[in-house]
Amino acid sequence: MQPQEIEDLLERYNNGLTTPEENALVETWYLNYKHSDPFLPHSQLEEDQKESLDKLLKKIQGKPKTIQLPRFAIAASVLVFLTAGIYFLVIKNKSQQQIAASKPQKQDIAPGGNKAILTLGDGSTIVLNSAKIGKLASQGNIIIKKAADGQISYGNVNSNASKEIIYNTAATPQGGQYQFILSDGTKVWLNAASSIKYPVVFNGSERRVELTGEAYFEVAHNDKKPFKVISNGQTVEVLGTHFNINAYNDGQAIKTTLLEGSVKVSAEGVSNIIKPGQQARFEHGSINLTNVDLDEVVAWKNGFFFFEENNIQEVMRQLSRWYGVEIKYEGQLPSRRFSGEISRNVNLSEILDILSFKKIHCKINGKTIIVMN
């Protein structure tokens, strides 16, 4: 490709006029080199490497790549190194990599999806992903329904709400996620390998739920009845707001992130009020506030993995939960860090192919990912 062709491609990309195949080319360039090592100028590439560059557009066929990043940022980054004479670098050991990449994966794992089990107050269970649309159960004066989009909601049979306290527990497996609307109108998105316990009806002076794992909340406003989320010794109290809690047992901290409104985070006798755009990290008996990228925090809810200078362990923890796999490491852990946004709706092999551009070599062995430096 000539410099003018590259500029034309980037202009069409920013204007939304490129084909899926061209999108894949630009976005793959961006992901591979956003935080990579220095590149070789085009003049230093071998002839067969130059030829592979010219053929790259023709070789991209089928469905588009999965990287979704801001168009302007991608195009600007690509333009900087391409128009400066820096082209897509095919490393000298590319023959091995190309041979490996060209071979079909012997094993692959499909992405997770809407999967959850609802445990009712009487101990009976409902597999939500296979349950039929419509009424699922009734508890007191409350009917549990499943909508056409799979969402679960609670509604009164009549205006007389039940005074009996009945608890339900919704749990997602590895590779599962689900969305609920509680009886007060609060919306809950439950991430993989998570659970939430809540009353069918919020009686009394507060609305209280218990969380393990990760969930995003859009709490229905009620000045007279605060909404509280209990997770691993931490309490989050709100009147009505949007926030995300990450309280996985394998994480180093409980992370509460506020998108709008106001949230009070309390644990072990200390508390903090956080503002939109802030994250409270509870660990080692203290709560620390930091400013965070909200897109990164809620990417899972919107169908993406979002990595921002994450180490390999954090990347693999997210893949383990979503694809339902065990992670094993062989040799020294890679020290590289990763940035980018990738769809969660692709097979595991596609994610591992992208990681291979950063010289992280993985293989799938049944339900295990083996990471080799």
Classify the beta-strand content into a percent band: 25-35%
Radius of gyration: 24 Å
**Strand-pairing-aware structural class:** alpha+beta
CATH topology of the largest domain: Jelly Rolls
Helix content: 10-25%
**Overall mean pLDDT:** 80
Can you name the CATH architecture of the largest domain? Sandwich
Q: How many discrete domains? A: 3
Identify the overall geometry.
Answer: globular
How would you sum up the major sheet? Answer: 19 strands, mixed
Q: Helical element count?
A: 8
Number of strands: 24
| Overall CATH class of the largest domain | Mainly Beta
Please explain how this structure is put together.
By secondary structure, the protein is of the alpha+beta class. It has three domains: 3-102, no CATH class; 113-297, Jelly Rolls (Sandwich), CATH 2.60.120.1440; 303-372, Phage tail protein beta-alpha-beta fold, CATH 3.55.50.30. It has helices spanning 3-14, 20-33, 47-59, 71-83, 94-102, 294-297, 312-323, 348-356; strands at 113-114, 117-119, 125-127, 134-139, 142-146, 152-156, 167-171, 176-181, 187-190, 195-199, 207-218, 227-231, 234-238, 242-247, 254-260, 263-267, 270-274, 278-283, 286-291, 304-310, 326-330, 338-343, 361-365, 368-372. The strands form three sheets. The protein has a 19-stranded mixed β-sheet that branches. Helix 1 (3-14) packs antiparallel against helix 4 and helix 2 packs across helix 4. The longest helix is centred in the N-terminal third of the chain and has 14 residues, at 20-33. Mean pLDDT is 80; it is low at 32-46, 48-74 and 76-97.
